[in-house]
Design brief:
With 467 residues, the chain is of the alpha/beta class. It has helices at residues 4-16, 32-43, 55-62, 71-83, 92-97, 119-134, 151-164, 186-191, 203-212, 225-256, 260-268, 289-302, 309-332, 359-368, 381-387, 397-401, 421-424, 441-446; strands spanning 24-28, 47-51, 86-89, 101-104, 140-143, 173-176, 196-200, 220-223, 339-343, 372-376, 392-393, 406-409, 431-434, 450-453. It is elongated. The structure holds uridine-5'-diphosphate-glucuronic acid. Uridine-5'-diphosphate-glucuronic acid binds at residues 146, 179-183, 236, 239, 243, 277-279, 281, 284-289, 347-348.
């Protein structure tokens, strides 16, 4: 019998082994998904070219650097660039023309209506269509950007066919292969995914993509294009639902003087519920969860279905930062005229991404109540200043706390766990609101500060909502 350790070693060796027949792979869009995909295939032994219309991005990637903060991915990218196995170019047509697989990994941001903006998808599809026209070989085009069901077959496919004069399913293959990586663990999530979803128009393309992923030993779900698109939305909207549900329960717990952490942990032990993504906080941000909930709500409405769940979980999310402010006010009274420190501006700790960060509604709420705000983040300050240029910024967490009447920690950066007496004594009033439930209450209290956590009702039963 093979021991568990031996089977683990074998599993690692399997995905770490370079493939026997290296393929030429083109990735269009040098963002999180595109670069994680490119680095993953490079590590599996393929020759990768990353195409992006932004010359500044191409220059950054060509020098082995990332245009965002993700250290483990950058380390591997740098090695691949040095060895010549990964290159970058702004000539997306040539990059696609010389490749056997072309992955479309461009952004699909939210429009004010909630609908996704697919201009980049159309543009990239046009480039790939031109490349198909110039090439004699069969290629597999793989849609990886998050797009609402029917986009691949009703938008991408006609563009590819009209620009190339070729037939999908005959002259080239078309697949939809959603990405499930989290920022902060992009490479690990790409190399060790929980599943690989392969939606394809025709069997040949699906088989080829499945073979490309063969070194990654995980279940591969073969399906059609629209189901693959929907799987991504079903996954992300469920994660968002779990978080909003946890926040709803936490808001109730705190009013009963109960610690929601114990409640949600115990509830999550039921395998039908599951413990992950049940952590209360100031709400979910990032480039995906809020955008995907809005987009699914919008596309469902266009199809004649008015979702009742999705708008509600968005409303809970919008209101959640107010819980943090009320919690602080339950201890220090109104924030009007007070100096409030906000630690952590990224949408979560460990990243420099501020898209849909809950720090924006949090700071806006504090300012609307008449507080003055001083803010700090280890990596995301440059991005946040563009969103809120007029507030005060500090150059360290300690400086941020200097003279503050209270502090709300918005992102779970590990270094904030180390803050102690030295920093807290700089505050006018040492009150710390843990907006992500990751700090150690005992450490904070023994360091001379008052700890308040979102959904943590034990210490001060019944206080929230009474001020
Ligand atoms: C999310 C999904 O988790 C990935 O599976 C998906 O591939 C990705 O979107 C995407 O579509 O590209 P990401 O945007 O990196 O990944 O962020 P998460 O780690 O999911 O966190 C989202 C937000 O939820 C953060 O603001 C985080 O602080 C918050 N959160 C997360 C909670 O408030 N509670 C939790 O229990 C978990």
């Amino acid at each position: 019998m093979v021991s568990r350790k031996a089977s683990r070693v074998r599993k690692v060796l399997l995905w770490a082994q370079p493939v026997r027949v290296p393929m030429r792979i083109c990735v269009i869009g040098a963002g999180y998904v595109g670069l994680a995909t490119g680095v993953m295939f490079g590590k599996l032994g393929h020759q990768v070219v990353c195409g992006d219309i932004d010359p500044a991005r191409v220059k950054t990637v060509s020098s082995g650097k990332l245009p965002f903060y993700e250290p483990p991915l950058e380390k591997e990218l740098s090695k691949l660039v040095k060895s010549g196995r990964l290159t970058a170019t702004s000539d997306c047509v040539s990059a696609a023309r010389t490749s056997e697989f072309v992955f479309l990994c461009v952004q699909t941001p939210s429009l004010p209506s909630g609908r996704i903006d697919i201009r980049s998808v159309k543009n990239a599809s046009g480039s790939v269509g031109k490349a198909l026209k110039k090439s004699k070989d069969y290629k597999v085009i793989v849609m990886k950007s998050t797009v609402v069901p029917s986009t691949t077959d009703s938008v991408v496919l006609p563009i590819l066919e009209s620009h190339s004069g070729k037939k999908a399913g005959v002259d080239f293959g078309l697949c939809m292969n959603p990405e499930f990586l989290q920022e902060g663990s992009a490479l690990k999530d790409s190399m060790e995914p929980s599943r690989i979803v392969i939606g394809s128009m025709d069997k040949r393309a699906g088989d080829m993509l499945s073979k490309l992923y063969a070194p990654i030993k995980v279940e591969k779900i073969r399906t059609d294009l629209r189901s693959a698109e929907m799987i991504k939305y079903a996954s992300n909207t469920f994660l968002a639902t779990k978080i909003s549900y946890a926040n709803e329960i936490a808001n109730m717990c705190v009013r009963f003087g109960i610690d929601s952490d114990t409640v949600l942990r115990a509830a999550g032990m039921d395998p039908r519920i599951g413990r992950l993504f049940l952590k209360p906080g100031l709400g979910f941000g990032g480039s995906c969860l809020p955008k995907d909930v809005k987009a699914l709500k919008d596309i469902a409405r266009q199809k004649g279905y008015k979702s009742r769940l999705l708008p509600t979980l968005l409303t809970i999310n919008e209101m959640q930062p107010v819980e943090g402010i009320q919690l602080l006010e339950s201890e220090i009274g109104s924030v009007r005229g007070k100096r409030i420190a906000v630690l952590g501006l990224a949408f979560k700790g460990g990243v420099d991404d501020t898209r849909e960060t809950r720090a924006v509604p949090l700071v806006t709420g504090l300012l609307a109540r008449g507080a003055s705000v001083v803010a700090y983040d280890p990596m995301a300050m440059g991005n946040f200043i563009k969103l809120m240029p007029t507030i005060e910024y500090a150059s360290s967490a300690g400086e941020c706390l200097d003279g503050a009447d209270g502090c709300i920690v918005q992102a779970d950066w590990p270094q904030f766990r180390k803050l102690g007496r030295k920093e807290f004594t700089r505050m006018k009033r040492a009150v710390i609101v843990d907006g992500r439930r990751f700090l150690d209450p005992a450490h904070i209290e023994t360091s001379g500060a008052t700890y308040l956590g979102v959904g943590y009702g034990l210490a001060r039963p019944g206080k929230v909502g009474k001020s």
